[in-house]
Design brief:
Layout: E1 3-8, H1 26-43, E2 47-50, H2 59-70, E3 77-84, E4 99-103, H3 108-122, E5 128-133, H4 138-142, E6 147-154, H5 158-184
Parallel strand pairs: 1-2, 1-3, 3-6, 4-5
Antiparallel strand pairs: 4-6
Helix pairs in contact: 1-5, 3-5
Bound molecules: zinc ion (ZN).
Zinc ion binds at residues 9-10, 19, 26, 82.
Length: 185
């Protein structure tokens, strides 16, 4: 049994500081995925907190509120759910943009969880962009517990969109929950 914080990135769709919106809407889908990840992890016996922020006043404030919620609980892992953008492949070229998981360092529980989640999402058919290190992300740099940021798939790639539609948020959430559970069980 592990303690885990999970949240969906950004403010809700349509508000200031909301996520990317294209073929898929990041804020909407990330919230559905996060909610389902939490349900599945609880079912596996973990103690899980939802640290999503729905009323931030700007982008920085959203991040500060999320981190404050995260650090209010002692947990083994902090998980942020996002959808990526920047492929701009509206027609579909037969290749998904796919998944990546960001960490400050590829070590310990966060490195293991990041790799495990990438593998599970790739098993759904998405391209595995792998674990990447980032040193400028507020969330990753300010949580007390090890933190990972999951970029599930791309909002602006027709191939990602078609694959996502087949399994919707439920398959994506199951892949993330399984990836976490394999490392933190
Ligand atoms: Zn995002």
């Amino acid at each position: 049994m592990a303690k885990i914080n999970v949240h969906a990135g950004h403010n809700p769709s349509g508000k200031i500081a909301c996520g990317a919106s294209d073929l898929l809407d990041e804020s909407n889908q990330a919230r559905k995925i996060a909610k389902e990840v939490i349900r599945l992890l609880k079912k596996k016996g973990h103690k899980v907190y939802n640290c999503t922020c729905n009323n931030g006043t700007n982008q920085r404030n959203v991040l500060e509120r999320i981190v404050a919620k995260c650090n209010a609980h002692g947990v083994h892992l902090d998980v942020s759910i996002h959808l990526n953008s920047g492929r701009n492949d509206k027609k579909g070229d037969g290749k998904t943009g796919g998944c990546e998981v960001l960490v400050t360092k590829r070590d310990g529980i966060k490195g293991d969880a990041a790799e495990s989640i990438c593998e599970e999402i790739a098993n759904l058919g998405y391209n595995n962009r792998g674990v990447k290190t980032a040193d400028g992300l507020y969330f990753l740099n300010h949580t007390d517990a090890p933190a990972i940021l999951v970029e599930c798939c791309f909002v602006d790639d027709m191939d990602d969109y078609e694959l996502y539609k087949k399994g919707n948020y439920k398959k994506m959430a199951k892949a993330i929950a399984d990836g976490i559970d394999k490392v933190l069980a």
